[in-house]
Write a structure and sequence with these properties.
The chain has a two-stranded antiparallel ribbon with strand order 1-2. 2% of the residues are buried. By secondary structure, it is mainly alpha-helical.
Length: 85
């Protein structure tokens, strides 16, 4: 809907592409450090889509192991989010 820009985040975090070895009996997969961050965003949005401004607001308030919150998102990053929405 052009009047409500949004971003769709695909659920591929635990896809087989994150696995380095597998057989029909086991898989050796990498832990995705972003899973906790994405889970937090999904819980906060609690909807199939969200406006770019809402996503940017949530990300700005999201602490990680390397960056404290609140943080100022670079204008280029916010602009790119709006472009792809």
């Amino acid at each position: 809907n052009p009047s409500q820009p949004s971003v769709i985040i695909p659920n591929y975090v635990n896809s087989p592409s994150n696995c380095v070895a597998s057989s029909k009996f086991y898989s050796v997969c990498c832990i995705d450090e972003c899973e906790v961050l994405l889970g937090h965003l999904e819980r906060q949005v609690a909807a199939p889509s969200a406006p770019p401004a809402r996503i940017a607001e949530l990300v700005a308030q999201l602490p990680s192991s390397t960056v404290g919150a609140p943080r100022a998102l670079p204008g280029a990053l916010v602009g790119r989010l709006e472009e792809i929405a």
